[in-house]
Structure formats: structure tokens, C-alpha cells
């Protein structure tokens, strides 16, 4: 009976499109429709509606024809969908997502495009057994079940069999799961083409993370397979080092935003090298477009980079670096968000330090990283006041709380007077000579922030 009805996609304030069937038409051209939930809506002929369909906003109502079969035939490859439309694609993806099927192929035969929805919770989809399954089926099965390992397996197959360089592009909006997808691809490559034994591989890595949809069971931003691999007895193999880069990169380059608790605030270009024996032999990670402004300023309900809050959880380190609580520092308290639900900064700091150790950083290098971060926290608290320059009629500035300059200069091993001079004065070159002029209060604050960004 339903198949004989005339169906259409009509707007939905949250899902964008919802299916409905035409229940009647008026003499003046208005259309009455019923949704799957049994709700009745009238769509006026003039195509303008204000109500629950549009979230209470008057707007043009687009009515799109619909193939009823798309509601019954949920496919794992969008190429096979019965209707190509926004409503059909979104409905298919949503129905799969509700069944914890977060991946959908767009062309399974080529295994080149995979659509992923971040579940914001742990799913048992990333075990060593699952990696072994895709290693075995990569060559024998033309259309394997959609999975991020399927993309990695296709790349590895192209590299090893065709001897051609391969690329994986991970794209999406903030909170869509790009960081996790990247780590899962690296997990697969280092497992299948590495030298580690299956029992040393990550037993289970999280399905996705980022926003605030559910209370997650994850330990934190970077602790997927990395720490588990080390705990399983890894011996600083090259694949272990590649995986252990994640906690370190995320500590210094990820932060909480309003949309994502572990948002990467920079771009990553990762190269994985293979030997003539077709085994992983090394990797290079290059960062670009780091959001340096976050070091000095955060929007409401957002945080600075994770590393600052991690350091502030270590009481012994705080004593050594003359640090107090996070509430005391301007560079980390502006967003009024010092903690993140489901994230333990102290535990994350342990993962960061472990990653530094496994990657071969010397103790003095690790110490220098932490000293620099602490110096920035002190530097951010430096305040200025406006003064009159006696020899001129111009305004200048001077530091009000010099103790923070002393702490920063000590940690950075920079002369105190040199920092004070660069913050409150500047050199201007004119006609072959250099003139030292005073900075105004606002200019001095800008110099302080610029210095902090440059150091980070």
C-alpha cells in the first residue's frame, strides 16, 4: 500500500530531510502530507512555511520527489542506492549509524572513498583480529565491509603489488573524527607491514572522539593503541615510535573547542616509508598552519593546548617551575574551561611523558619543553601601565608585576633586562639610523603576546 502512495522529501529542522507521503491536495494547490511518525503537515502552494518543519523560521519549502524503496533498501555502498538525493543519502547514512555501522562506501569496488560518521564513543571495531581480517581479505574480496582499515588495506595493496606511492586524504569538519581515522590508518599499516607480533598490537582503539554527544569511556585524546602497545612489551620498534607520536603531537597541537574536546589545531602531513622488503622503515610528520593565536587567547568554553593543563596537574613539576593552579594564569583561564569531561589531564601527561621517552628524547630536552611552556604561562601574566615619557610628550609603558618577567626569563635562560626592553620599547630604522622608541601600553601587551606565539 505504501509503495503506491506518492512520496516526497520535506524539510526537518534537525535531520534536514524527512520522508512523507501525500495525503491530499486542496483546490488552491496546498498539499497535505503525513510523515512516518503520523504527523500531518500542510505545505502551502506559495512554498513558505513557519513552524516545526523549519524550526520556527519562515522560509521557502522545497518539496523533492522520493523513491519509497530507499527507506527499505539500506546499502553499504552509496553507489547502489535506489535514489541519488540529499534526503536519500542522509537517511541511508543515519540508519546505518543507528545500527553502529559508522562506515559507508562510495564505490566499494575501487575502495577509494569512505564516508565515516564519528560515534563519539568506543566501538569494538579496531582490534588486531579486525586488522588481520582486512589483511587477508584485501586481495581476495572485491567489496569488503566498509571500514577505515579497508582504505588502509587498499593503499598498502597498491604500494606492495603495483609499486606505486599511495596517499590517504582525511577530510571533514571539526569533530568529524579525522584525528582518529588517521591514527587507525597508521595502526593498520604498522601492524600489517611492521615487525610487531599480533599480541603486541593494540587490542582495541576507540571508534571516534571529539564533541560532546555522549559520555565516552576513552582515557583521553591520544591514548588509543599507543600506550597499550608499550604496555604489551614493545621494544622501541619503528612502528611503535610511529604510533607513540600521537600522544605527543596531540598534547602540543590539540585543544578543546566548543565542538570538539580534542580538536587538532593544525594540519598534518604524514609520510610512512617502506623498505625494499616492503616493511615499514620510518616516518616523517610535518605540521603546518598551527593556530598560534590559541596560545594567548581562547573563546568561552574552550581551552589552550592540552600540554599546559597537563603540566599544571603535576605538583612536583609545578613546584620546580614556580607554577600555581590553572586559574592563576591568563593564557589558560580565559575560556573559563579548565577541565574536560571524560579527560584526565594528569593521566594524559603520563602518556605524553611516556611518548617522549619512547621517541628517544633526552631528559634535558623533555625538561626544556616543560620549562618553555611554564615560561609562557608566566609571561602571559605580565601587565603594563601607561607612563609619560619625560623627554617627549609621548606615552610609554612599564611593567607592573616584574616578578613574572623574572620567572619567565629564568626558565628561558634569557636576560631579564632584555625581555623587559623588547616588551616596552622597539627599534625604528630611519635614514640609516636606528631609534629606540617606547611602546604604548596596548603595544607592549601586543609585543608580549607576539613573543609568546613565536616561542610556542
TrEMBL record:
Q: Where is the composition biased (Basic residues)?
A: 211-220
Keywords per UniProt: Actin-binding, ATP-binding, Motor protein, Myosin, Nucleotide-binding
- State where ATP binds: 172-179
Q: Name one GO biological process term.
A: actin filament organization
Q: Nucleotide-binding: present as a keyword of the record? A: yes
Which family is this sequence assigned to?
A: Belongs to the TRAFAC class myosin-kinesin ATPase superfamily. Myosin family.
Residues annotated as domain Myosin motor? 73-456
Q: Please list where the region (Disordered) is annotated.
A: 199-221, 433-456
Protein name (database record): Myosin motor domain-containing protein
**One MF term in the entry's GO annotations:** actin filament binding
Q: Which Pfam families match?
A: Myosin_head
Q: What is the lineage of its organism?
A: Eukaryota, Sar, Stramenopiles, Bigyra, Labyrinthulomycetes
Is DNA damage one of the keywords UniProt gives this record? no
- Recorded superkingdom: Eukaryota
**Would you tell me the Gene Ontology cellular component terms?**
cytoplasm; membrane; myosin complex
Amino acid at each position: 500500500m505504501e509503495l503506491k502512495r506518492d512520496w516526497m522529501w520535506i524539510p526537518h529542522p534537525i535531520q534536514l530531510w524527512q520522508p512523507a507521503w501525500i495525503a491530499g491536495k486542496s483546490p488552491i494547490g496546498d498539499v497535505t502530507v503525513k510523515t512516518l511518525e503520523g504527523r500531518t503537515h500542510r505545505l502551502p502552494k506559495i512554498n513558505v512555511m513557519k513552524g516545526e518543519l523549519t524550526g520556527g523560521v519562515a522560509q521557502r519549502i522545497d518539496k523533492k520527489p522520493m523513491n519509497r524503496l530507499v527507506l527499505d533498501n539500506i546499502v553499504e555502498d552509496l553507489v547502489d542506492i535506489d535514489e541519488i538525493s540529499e534526503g536519500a543519502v542522509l537517511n541511508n547514512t543515519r540508519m546505518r549509524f543507528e545500527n553502529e555501522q559508522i562506515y559507508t562506501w562510495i564505490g566499494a569496488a575501487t575502495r577509494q572513498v569512505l564516508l565515516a560518521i564519528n560515534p563519539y564513543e568506543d566501538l569494538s571495531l579496531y582490534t588486531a583480529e579486525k586488522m588481520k581480517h582486512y589483511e587477508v581479505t584485501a586481495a581476495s574480496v572485491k567489496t569488503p565491509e566498509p571500514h577505515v582499515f579497508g582504505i588502509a588495506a587498499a593503499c598498502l595493496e597498491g604500494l606492495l603489488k603495483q609499486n606505486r606511492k599511495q596517499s590517504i586524504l582525511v577530510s571533514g569538519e571539526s569533530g568529524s573524527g579525522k584525528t582518529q581515522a588517521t591514527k587507525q590508518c597508521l595502526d593498520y599499516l604498522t601492524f600489517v607491514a611492521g615487525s610487531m607480533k599480533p599480541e603486541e598490537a593494540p587490542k582495541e582503539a576507540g571508534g571516534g572522539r571529539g564533541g560532546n554527544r555522549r559520555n565516552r569511556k576513552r582515557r583521553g585524546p591520544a591514548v588509543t593503541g599507543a600506550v597499550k602497545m608499550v604496555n604489551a612489551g614493545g621494544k622501541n620498534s619503528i612502528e611503535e615510535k610511529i604510533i607513540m607520536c600521537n600522544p605527543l603531537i596531540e598534547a602540543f597541537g590539540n585543544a578543546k573547542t566548543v565542538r570538539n574536546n580534542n580538536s587538532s589545531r593544525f594540519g598534518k602531513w604524514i609520510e610512512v616509508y617502506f623498505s625494499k622488503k616492503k616493511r615499514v622503515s620510518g616516518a616523517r610528520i610535518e605540521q603546518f598552519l598551527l593556530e598560534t593565536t590559541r596560545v594567548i587567547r581562547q573563546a568561552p568554553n574552550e581551552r589552550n593546548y592540552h600540554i599546559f593543563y597537563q603540566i599544571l596537574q603535576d605538583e612536583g613539576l609545578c613546584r620546580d617551575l614556580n607554577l600555581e593552579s590553572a586559574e592563576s594564569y591568563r593564557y589558560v583561564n580565559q575560556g573559563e574551561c579548565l577541565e574536560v569531561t571524560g579527560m584526565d589531564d594528569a593521566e594524559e601527561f603520563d602518556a605524553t611523558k611516556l611518548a617522549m621517552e619512547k621517541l628517544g628524547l633526552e631528559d634535558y630536552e623533555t625538561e626544556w619543553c616543560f620549562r618553555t611552556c611554564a615560561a609562557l604561562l608566566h609571561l602571559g601574566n605580565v601587565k603594563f601601565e601607561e607612563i609619560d615619557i619625560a623627554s617627549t610628550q609621548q606615552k610609554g609603558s612599564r611593567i607592573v608585576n616584574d616578578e613574572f618577567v623574572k620567572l619567565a626569563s629564568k626558565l628561558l635562560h634569557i636576560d631579564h633586562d632584555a625581555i623587559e626592553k623588547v616588551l616596552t620599547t622597539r627599534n625604528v630604522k630611519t635614514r640609516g639610523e636606528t631609534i629606540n622608541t617606547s611602546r604604548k601600553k596596548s603595544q607592549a601587551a601586543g609585543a608580549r603576546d607576539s613573543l609568546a606565539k613565536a616561542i610556542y
